[in-house]
Amino acid sequence: MTEDLNDAPWTVSEEQKMRFAGIFLLEYMINHPHIFQLWLEDRDSDLEPILEWLLSKGWIEIREAKEYVPTNEGRDILKRFMERYARFVYFFDVFSGVDLGAGEFAFANYFEILEPEEWTAYLHEERFSDVRIAIAEYLGIDAVEIVFMSFIREDRFGRDASGWQFDLLLGSVWDQILDICNSAIGVEELGYEDGDSWIDGEVVAEDILQQGGALLGKLLARAEEELQGTGFRHSGGKEEDRVVPAVVFPPASDFKFDEYIKPTTRDRFWDNNWDGPWFFYSCFADGMLYATSHPYASLPHSCSQHCWTFFLVWLSIS
Q1: Closest to 166 (Cα-Cα) out of 47, 12, 252
Q2: Is residue 224 part of a domain?
């Protein structure tokens, strides 16, 4: 499905940084909500190039010559991004623990391990490999976007932290993202010798994708409650600063996960053109799995261990 993606390191262009930083800031303005004054002060001045980029896109506008506010078009863009972000949250965690030798998934035993600490230790057993980047690569998804979204989920850009405005576009966080992408297992590394034959990494990736999708279905079948994901974290904000309605994180029931693994339909579900006119954002039906950052399991984010915490919501966990 993809060709030679692992021959060169993952990179992030200045345009990509601006695109990701812009959507992050737009979400803050809409959902927090927050209004930036035209004359930026102190550390907010580091946000000026991002705000100007959003302005050039028409996603924000200048109101009464004194402040930046979001537009309805900006809200539509955020809605599209949030739907894509939700797909990543709901779908990829099952690929964070795969025993490549035995062909087993850690999440096959999810319901058998109820204690968070025990689950974390199990997921980090040496036999399990994190192949999320490889599956993303195989599906034609930019690994940088995958890790960027995980950083959002882990609050790594920390809008309550000092200096977050600088970090959003120019900070070392982007080097950390690239380090994770370039040290992760890629599609090519999934290949192996089977007797006298070589099994190509793409063949293995397709098999993992199909097995992971089937496992998602089994896990979902055991869920007894409406599954609801979580979006960006918010604090503070004043309702009188709200210009457009907030964009909520879509519930898992909006999704039909089996369409995401079918070769005949999956490409359009993973289209990364969330800010373009051909983004498919009205293609959801029942069924997907809920992934969330559990408050009792904050895991390190390194090349061997970076892992979103994945917990299925059912009646015994409120």
Answers
A1: 47
A2: yes
